[in-house]
């Protein structure tokens, strides 16, 4: 995995990242959005905003984008110390250390970010790989949102809220 590199996302990554999330969403129980609910325009907009106000990075191996992750600040003044985390390792690249590399960069950035005190995320209860990754990086469970996600087969699963707190 020594040719794995993490760089800032650029607007020109939007279509590829959108397609990767759409593909990931074909497996129920990973992401919240359904495949038809992604648009490259919204990826462009988020990359643009987070380039100025947060962090949006991609992982590249041998010049190919294999994952992405972001930290998004809350816009309300009373919540400005709270950021939201999203991470997606692209299909066919799972279990090869990409998620770990992305999380390492996100948390290094978070520790150095003035005013960032807390990172929040939501993860589907059945997504044990992601929950294990977050725990490994110091996230703790804060709550359980019952019946939050409706799967295509008509069943519901819970979302787990997790958080990371910046060291004092
Ligand atoms: C969750 C996700 C980000 C993990 O990334 P990854 O690149 O596959 O994970 P890594 O290879 O870097 O492994 C890092 C850690 O994740 C956990 N993990 C990853 N794959 C795992 C597996 N098959 N079984 C158990 N734990 C696993 C482990 O804690 C692992 O650390 P370890 O190897 O020291 O035990 C990735 O699976 C993913 O993007 N999934 C699809 C999208 C998604 O679910 N996003 C999160 C939505 S909340």
Automatic annotation (TrEMBL):
GO molecular function, one term: acyltransferase activity, transferring groups other than amino-acyl groups
InterPro entries: Acyl_CoA_acyltransferase, Bact_Acetyltransf, GNAT_dom
SUPFAM superfamilies, alphabetized: Acyl-CoA N-acyltransferases (Nat)
Keyword Transcription regulation assigned: no
Residues annotated as domain N-acetyltransferase: 4-167
CDD domains given in the database record: NAT_SF
Keywords from the named record: Acyltransferase, Transferase
Domain of life: Bacteria
Protein name: GNAT family N-acetyltransferase
Originating species: Pseudomonas saxonica
